Structure formats: structure tokens, C-alpha cells
Amino acid sequence: MGPRRRCGNRACARRAAADRRSVQRSVPHRRRLEHVTAWCLATLAWLLWLLGLVGPRLGGSDPGLQGPIGFVSETVAAMWVQVGLLTTMLAILALVRRLWWPALTLAPIVLFTLLPEVCARSRLDEPLRGDGRPLRVATVSLEMENVDDPLMEACLRELDADVLVLLEVTKPWATRLEQWFLGDYPHRWLAAATENPDAREELQIAVLSRLPAAGDCEVVNLGKLNSQIRVPLRWRDHVFALYGIHPRKPWPYAVYARAWRDRKQLLDWFARERLPIVVAGDFNATPRSAFVHRLHLLGLANASEAVCGCAPVTWPMHPGLLSPFRVAIDHVMHSEEFAAIAFRKGLATNSVHSSIYAELTWRKQ
To answer: Does domain 135-362 have CATH number 3.60.10.10?
Structure first.
């Protein structure tokens, strides 16, 4: 029994030594794999970040790039804050694994993405005081699927805007609006798809105004069905063009080309305008998108950014519904003749969009 025991002990010792050597060999291999993975993710993060930063500015006068590159650029620009948060998580994970250089490489993305959002403040260095009562503009997405919303009437009344731009108006919604605002908002226009009146109505836009018209309204159909509206309005001694817009969304990739054409058509429409402009609605575009960037180049400013420092998220607003991925796609923008002095979101409703409200004043010449 003694010799066998010694032989068994020697075999166990050999197996233990072999296991130690195997572990020693696997540790460097796993470490190399972690390094390679970390550098690949850091490289991918930099490529996406640069594409989201530069991509919306490419394409000349067009609303960004076309094809897959344009789609990726639009997506990264839309999820700018989320990309920054994801990069932060990767950097922290790299630090935990003591991958110092990959973590350091990700640090500039984190700083240049999140720091401006955290430090965002009002661009109004001095309070602007308008001459008399400001122009109050609000936009609300009623939604076709939002059939019975007991909160909507209170929201619209609380906004108490001079001009209401209402999106996704259907016949049932039109009937309710007529009942709610009987005797109020005497001037009303509806952007309907005149080329195909039997088409679905969820994309119709209504403009309810206490301001009188200064001319005939104009309706432009994007893709024959999606109607946008322009109404010249008179406010005090000034005449301006109010645009209600709702271009189609650029996600997923299958509809990106169609959304790109919608944006191109809208930009050409705005470029022909000779009056001061106010544009309100669901832009289906975030502040960093190529579309909004082109609007800035046309001389339009975002009321929310001027007042709040950055545009507050407006979609999707149902409690718990993709809350980490909420983005700002509803806007009120204006030409340089106006200045924004107030901006806020309206009361909560059953719509997945927040209503937004802006007060504008005429800049003194």
C-alpha cells in the first residue's frame, strides 16, 4: 500500500503542476483577448462618434448624407447622449479590468459628449423684453391611436397659445376640437392630402390661430400623402409665415431614403420664403441631426436651446416606455427677426409626444 500511495501522490502532484501551467498559459491568453476586445471597441466608439459629429455637416445643401453612412450618422447624432453614456460604461469597465490605455482613449469622447450637456445653460445673457405681449406658439401631437384622451383638453387650454399647431388630426379629433374651442381660435386651417382625399388621415396638420391671416395658406404634400402647411399671419404690425411640419421619421433604415426626400423638399420650401419664419411641429429630427443643422444654416434658431440651453426630450413620453432612449424631436424654430424669451413643455397627456410652448418677441431693429 505504501508504494502505491506514493505513486498516487506523485500522479496528483503532476496533475496539479500541469493544471498550474495550463492556468498560467491561459491567463496571458485571456489578457491579450481583453486588450484586443477593448481596443476594437474603443476604435468602433471613435468611428461612430466622429461620424455622428461630422456626418450631419456633410452633404452640402442636402439634408445630410444618403445611404447606410447617412443613416448611421443620423442615428448616432440622434442618440448622442446615449452614445456618451455607453462610452462611459465601456471606459469604467476598462478601468476595472486595468486596461488603462483603452480607457484613456475613450475619455475624450466622454468629456466632449456629456460635459456640454451637463453644462448647458441659457444663451440669453440678458433678459429680452419684448414690446408688449409676446407671440405664443405651441405644437401638440394628438396621435391617431390616441382615440380617447381625457387629458388633452386640459393640456390645450393650459397652453393658451395664440397659435396652435396640431399634428395627426383625424375627423374624430377635429370634432372634439370644434366642441372644445367653440368661439375661440376663429382662424383655422387644415393640411389635407388633396391629391388623395381617401388616404389615411393620421398625418394631417391643423393650425388654430387667434391671429388673422395675412394671405392664403399653402399646402405641400410630401410623397402625395404627408401634407405640410404654411400660413401667413399678422401679429401686431408684423407679417410672418407660420409653418406646421411633420416629415416622416428616418428610422429604421428601410424608410431613411423617404425621410431624406421629405427633408430635402422642406428645405427647398423654406429657402424660397421671403417673410420672417416660425416653424413648429414634429420634426422627427434631433437638434444634432443634419436636417436641424441645415435649418440653422438657413438662419433659424431653436427656441428651446435659446431659453433652456438644450432641447428637452419630447418622445417617447409614456412612463417607462424606452425612457433611457427619449429624444427631442418636437421643436419651435424661428428666423432672426424673432427672439425666444420663454419655453416649456405642456401638461402630460396620453400622447407619446410632449406638447411644447414657446414665447417669441420681435427683435428691435
So the answer is: yes
In the three-class reduction of DSSP (H, G, I as helix; E, B as strand; rest coil), residue 74 is classed as helix
Q: What is the domain partition of the chain in residue ranges?
A: 2-118, 135-362
Instruction: Note the Cα 123 to chain centre separation in Å.
Output: 20
Nearest to 354 by CA among 270, 323, 93, 126: 323
In 146-262, where do the E strands start and end?
163-167, 187-191, 205-209, 218-222, 226-235, 238-245
Residue 59 CB neighbours (<10 A): 17
Global confidence as pTM: 0.88
Q: What 3-state class would DSSP assign to 242?
A: strand
Is 240 buried (19+), middle (13-18) or exposed (0-12) by CB count in 10 A? buried
* Contact criterion met (CB below 8 Å) for 240 and 254: no
Set of cell numbers at residue 191: 393640411
343 strand-pairing partners: 358
Residues 282, 329: contact at Cβ < 8 Å? yes
pLDDT tens for 334-346 read: 999 999 999 999 9
Each residue's pLDDT tens digit, 10-43: 666 666 655 555 545 555 778 889 899 999 999 9
| N- to C-terminal Cα separation, the chain | 109
Q: Which residues contact 309 (CB under 8 A, 6 or more apart)?
A: 120, 121, 122, 123
Q: Where are the alpha helices (DSSP H) in the chain?
A: 2-54, 67-78, 80-96, 100-118, 152-159, 171-180, 256-271, 290-297, 303-308
